[in-house]
Amino acid sequence: MANPVRLHAYFRSSASWRVRIALAMKGIAHETVAHSLLDGEQRDPAYLALNPQGLVPALEIDGLVLTQSLAICEYLDETRPAPPLLPADPAGRAHVRALAQAIACDVHPLQNLRVLQAVVKLVGSAEAGPAWGRRVCEEGLDAFAALVANETGVFCAGDTPGLADIMLVPQLANARRFGADLRWPRLLAIEQACMALPVFADTAPQHQPGFTP
Ligand SMILES: N[C@@H](CCC(=O)N[C@@H](CS)C(=O)NCC(=O)O)C(=O)O
């Protein structure tokens, strides 16, 4: 019997939600191993043996341990091509990857838990963390909104959801949590279209083990 697919995650982790969406899109059943980030469980030695970065998610699949949500999504897409997460043409793929990386590389890492904790410590104020997170989300999503401004489809790139949408929806949830000014009607419309789909809605944080509001 094949090994079970196992996702190491935390309910509030937006990077984990990305992988849950991709798994759902690909129709891959999996079990979840929850690691409480607030309790520091991502730094337990047993988990560090799986992911030495001490970050969630990590995905056990096909006898491998995969880390980095973007790399995981692309692995799933390469090994299970239907439905595709990327457009068929190179220019379209470059555009969608640029959108995905705009969030995964340039927004999310700046508002990661350990960064927020460091900001609070450096500034010496508990309010500094959310204020920093809000600023990063607003600036990053302003740029993302400009990047999709000329798109005419329902989703970030066309009329089917893909990798850029997988990155956007969890990031908007973070923006909301930080109290950001949600000044992006186009992004909110994309989010609404995504959340009408079970692959996004059913994988949301509130449906995950250990969820607390
Ligand atoms: N670039 C990584 C980011 C992973 C990441 O930052 N995960 C966060 C949760 S969303 C985490 O584990 N944070 C723990 C910490 O900061 O200590 C990915 O896309 O997988």
Could you give a quick summary of the protein structure above?
Helices cover 49% and strands 8% of the residues. By secondary structure, it is α+β, with helices and mostly antiparallel strands. Helix 1 links the parallel strand 1 and strand 2.
Q: What would you say this structure looks like, in words?
A:
- This protein is an alpha+beta fold.
- The chain folds into two domains: 85 residues, Glutaredoxin (3-Layer(aba) Sandwich); 108 residues, Glutathione S-transferase Yfyf (Class Pi), Chain A, domain 2 (Up-down Bundle).
- 49% of the residues lie in helices and 8% in strands.
- The chain has nine helices and four strands, in the order βαβαββααααααα.
- A four-stranded mixed sheet has the order 2-1-3-4, with helices on one face.
- A hairpin with a 2-residue loop joins β3 and β4.
- α4 runs parallel beside α7, α5 packs across α6 and α7 packs across α8.
- The chain is globular.
- The structure holds glutathione (GSH).
- The site of glutathione has 15 residues, from α1, α3 and α5.
